[in-house]
Design a protein that fits this description.
Layout: E1 12-17, E2 28-38, E3 44-46, E4 55-60, E5 63-67, E6 70-71, H1 78-87, E7 92-99, E8 113-123, H2 131-152, H3 164-175, H4 182-195, H5 202-214, E9 218-219, H6 220-225
Antiparallel strand pairs: 1-7, 1-9, 2-3, 2-4, 2-8, 4-5, 5-6, 7-8
Length: 231
């Protein structure tokens, strides 16, 4: 995992929840997903209101034909986003770091890199995820993702896989310095209830969540080569 292909500038992405999928792609497929673009400060540049719910992306023979019944407008990093939608489990939440020249749309800011969160909550050929999963992942996308991003982005060029434990400690330190957000505390409590089986201070729970995200980065070309991305 220490290959140079995982350095900044590649299409690298991280799973906050879920994994790559292994379900064959049907001829016709509808995917429920939220796509949000952040800058390095965790501010939203593109995407839906979190309270609106996911859009429905309709695929025919692997090609996205429309979103919410209308011919799809500009979708940032369109090819990458569509590949991810078709090739991850349900539900899943990923965050991808995308170089400016691969975005394909003008977001009218001069950032070198943008960060795309893709939350997939349903597929027409798979049993829908539970209401509890939807609530948990929506809160994670709304509060934990931008908070972590705000801390990670300024030093993203230094990040390489292999030292996730120490990285998590540093990131958790800086995340704790950001102003309080009730939704953030709600998310940490939800994560604790789902995954932590012993009493731990909140800071330790944050580190566990970060470690889950950062210990295993992926990169698009490598994932295709290894048949993790098949469609």
């Amino acid at each position: 995992m220490m290959e140079s292909s995982y350095s900044q500038g590649s299409l690298r992405y991280f799973f906050f929840h879920g994994n790559h999928g292994d379900v064959p792609l049907p001829h016709h497929l509808t995917v429920e997903a939220n796509v949000v673009v952040f800058n390095g400060k965790g501010e939203i540049l593109f995407g839906q209101n979190f309270d609106k719910g996911p859009s429905c992306y309709e695929f025919q023979d692997g090609i996205c034909r429309n979103a919410d019944g209308q011919v799809e407008g500009p979708l940032p990093a369109k090819s990458f986003v569509e590949k991810i939608m078709k090739n991850i489990s349900v539900p899943s939440l990923i965050l991808a770091e995308v170089p400016r020249h691969q975005m394909g749309v003008d977001l009218e800011v001069e950032d070198t890199f943008f960060y795309i969160a893709i939350l997939v909550l349903g597929r027409s050929d798979i049993r829908p995820c539970t209401a509890g999963d939807r609530e948990y992942l929506s809160i994670m996308m709304k509060t934990f993702v931008p908070r972590m991003l705000r801390v990670m982005a300024p030093t993203a060029s230094e990040y390489l896989p292999g030292d996730a434990h120490n990285v998590c400690i540093g990131v958790a330190d800086r995340m704790e310095m950001i102003e309080d957000d009730p939704d953030y505390h709600t998310f940490i409590a939800m994560y604790r209830g789902r995954y932590v089986q012993k009493p731990l201070p909140r800071r330790a729970v944050v580190e566990l969540c970060l470690l889950h995200v950062l210990k295993m980065p992926f990169e698009l070309n490598t994932s295709i080569k290894n048949s993790l991305i098949r469609y």
